[in-house]
Amino acid sequence: MDVYVMGVAVHPAADAIGDRRLEEMAYATARAALDDAGVTRRDIDHVTLAASDEIDARGISSMLLAAPSGAYLKDEMRVTDSGLTALFLGAMRAASGDLQLGLVVSWNQSSVGPLEDIARMRAEPFYLRPVGLNFAIADGLFAGAVAERFGIDETAVAERVHQRMTAAARNPRAVRRAVRSVAEIAASPPIAHPLRQAHRAPVTDGAVAMVLASGTWLRAHPTARPLARIAGCAWTVDRYQLDAERLADTARFSAALQDALSRSGAANVDALDVVELEAQSGWVDLALTRSLGAGGHVAVNPSGGTWAQNPFFCTGLVNAAEAVLQVGGRAGPHQVPGARRALAHGSSGFAQQTHGFVVMEGVSA
């Protein structure tokens, strides 16, 4: 794609951000991304927002968040799937030839209301909602399915969670937490067999923003320095039913991955240097890493992934920000030396119903 990331900002994450309204979080993050890009709000011609009314605990959330996100008197669109979906739409808008420089902004403040109550309201109303289906139960069903299909066990899950928490401790954008031992993770309370409490990444509050430019805009501003090029992206949606075949089937994940790689010009996953996967539990992490099939030279979740920060609605866009920082050499203590291509992944829906991928490529000075 002839689309470039000019600036990126990630709001300081926390389990609960209580000293700022959502409007203030969105404003501060959008402004920081503009500053990072070296442009002003006057320069942009479009804004793409990603938000969930239910998680924000307000109707038509974007009505109050559009202006502080930079969209006042700008061409504005909104998506409700996930933050990463907004990146796809924002990139396509910049690639259309009609728009040149835009903002993508997403936020999450699930601390204001129980996320699992929201999940129950998203379940099919006649059969699944009455039995209380939520994300935890869906993740438990997924864990059981992949344990049976791939032979993943609780010991391997505890070790993977410990590995991710150790990596997150090096990430300056992570929520500060003590790294739990493998034994502590394995002994945590059960939630939905075989899923345990410590198998799941804690949900946090946060926000993320990016400035995207078309190639036309970039060529018209030769002094501007992009952080990365969006080399390719792809996404997919699986069926809603949570039968055993759907739960343990990672074919759609693999197909969308190959589509994104092909569009980016990468022969296979081993052409990458970094992969940032969204995995809401250790079971998901192991199953998706297995399907990824990357060689040992590919760094998977060097940021710590969801155990660094997990602003549920926009975690995929945080992964994209981490990918940009990696190929721009700005990731910090967990920087992968010489990273030139990084893949970011995001998912949404019950038990990874949707998957999205974007490949970020470094830009030579």
Task: Describe what this molecule looks like in 3D.
The chain has 365 residues and is an alpha/beta fold. The protein has a domain at 3-113 and 204-220: Thiolase/Chalcone synthase (Peroxisomal Thiolase, Chain A, domain 1), CATH 3.40.47.10. Helices cover 36% and strands 19% of the residues. It has 13 helices and 12 strands. The chain has helices at residues 22-37, 53-56, 61-65, 83-95, 115-122, 135-150, 154-168, 182-186, 215-220, 244-248, 251-264, 282-292, 315-327, and strands at residues 3-10, 46-50, 75-79, 101-108, 190-192, 195-196, 206-214, 228-237, 274-276, 299-300, 341-348, 354-361. The chain has a 10-stranded mixed beta sheet. It has a two-stranded antiparallel sheet with strand order 5-6. A hairpin with a 2-residue loop joins β5 (190-192) and β6. α4 (83-95) crosses α13 (315-327) and α7 packs across α12. The longest helix has 16 residues, at 22-37.
In brief:
This protein is of the alpha/beta class and 365 residues long. It has helices at residues 22-37, 53-56, 61-65, 83-95, 115-122, 135-150, 154-168, 182-186, 215-220, 244-248, 251-264, 282-292, 315-327, and strands spanning 3-10, 46-50, 75-79, 101-108, 190-192, 195-196, 206-214, 228-237, 274-276, 299-300, 341-348, 354-361. The two termini are 19 Å apart.
